[in-house]
Amino acid sequence: MKQLSYILILLIGTVTVSQNNPLFELGKERYKEGKYQEAVENWMKILDKGEHSAHLYFNLGNAHYKLNNIGPSIYYYEKALQLNPLDGDIKTNLSFAENARIDAIEPLPKSVFSKWHSTISGLLDFDNWARVSVGFTLLFVILFLGYYFSESERKKRILFASSLFSLLLFILSLAMTFQIYSDVIHDKPAIIFAESVEVKSEPNMGSEVAFSLHEGTKVQIMEEDDNWVRIKLVNGKDGWVPISDLKSL
């Protein structure tokens, strides 16, 4: 807990665009005074105006954590991580908040292919994988033209082999680009905001209770039916909850 408090104090001073907003500065002052709810209210006014940043979400997460609002704190840390996925401080504070959850859900074991895919796809985002694909395309064209116009048999063999290799890399990077795009399209995470919620087997209050979840648990939204959503956990369990009991990231 001392480590978390130290991080929270230090990271309030990080320079971002949001700090130019008077409401953000007022929120900082309220936070330093220990008036965390007032800090949240000032920062939420910024969000209501359509402005957002990783630093703003991060500080909202910090304030909610101080208020012991585990669901909102995890939600805003996750929002901050979406905008700045490599920030170690966000990841650290998120892990502290996650440790305060009631639900401890173990994910299903990953296959070798899944582990490989997670490792490779995590190196770059969709836009950068697309740029890599374009780069390998240009490299293939340059190498093939070099092969076509070269008069040396030795150079021809080297350039031809290199062009084929670059073509293979282009195909692999293009496949990775489309796979990541598909993952992004189908990725619909949400955080449980209700203190406790009964997950139903069907989208109605009279159906059987499959299991229960608590504030701060991260789920995937699979489909919607009026005021209900079907969710899935990392351990493979799924069921229906009222849409008002969670908040989409």
Helices and strands in order, then pairings?
Blueprint lengths: L1 H10 L10 H11 L3 H13 L5 H13 L3 H14 L4 H12 L12 H10 L4 H24 L3 H34 L2 E4 L3 E5 L8 E6 L3 E8 L2 E5 L5 E5 L3 E3 L1
Antiparallel strand pairs: 1-4, 1-7, 2-3, 4-5, 5-6
Helix pairs in contact: 1-6, 2-3, 3-4, 4-5, 4-6, 5-6, 8-9
| Helix/strand class | alpha+beta
What Rg is obtained from the alpha carbons, in whole angstroms?
24 Å
- So what's the CATH class of the largest domain? Mainly Alpha
> Which parts are unreliable, with pLDDT below 50 for 5 consecutive residues or more?
1-19
Quantity of strands, as a count: 7
What is the CA–CA distance across the termini?
26 Å
CATH architecture assignment name of the largest domain: Alpha Horseshoe
Could you spell the SSE succession in H and E letters? HHHHHHHHHEEEEEEE
Provide keyphrases for this structure.
alpha+beta; 9 helices; disordered N terminus; 14% strand; 249 residues; SH3 type barrels; Serine Threonine Protein Phosphatase 5, Tetratricopeptide repeat; two-stranded antiparallel sheet
Protein architecture, described:
The protein has helices at residues 2-11, 22-32, 36-48, 54-66, 70-83, 88-99, 112-121, 126-149, 153-186; strands at residues 189-192, 196-200, 209-214, 218-225, 228-232, 238-242, 246-248. Helices cover 57% and strands 14% of the residues. Strands 6-5-4-1-7 form a 5-stranded antiparallel beta sheet. The chain has a two-stranded antiparallel ribbon with strand order 2-3. It is extended. A hairpin with a 5-residue loop joins β5 (228-232) and β6. The protein is α+β, with helices and mostly antiparallel strands and 249 residues long. The model is unreliable at 1-19 (pLDDT under 50). α4 (54-66) packs parallel to α6 (88-99). The chain has 3 domains: 2-99, Tetratricopeptide repeat domain (Serine Threonine Protein Phosphatase 5, Tetratricopeptide repeat), CATH 1.25.40.10; 112-186; 189-248, SH3 type barrels.
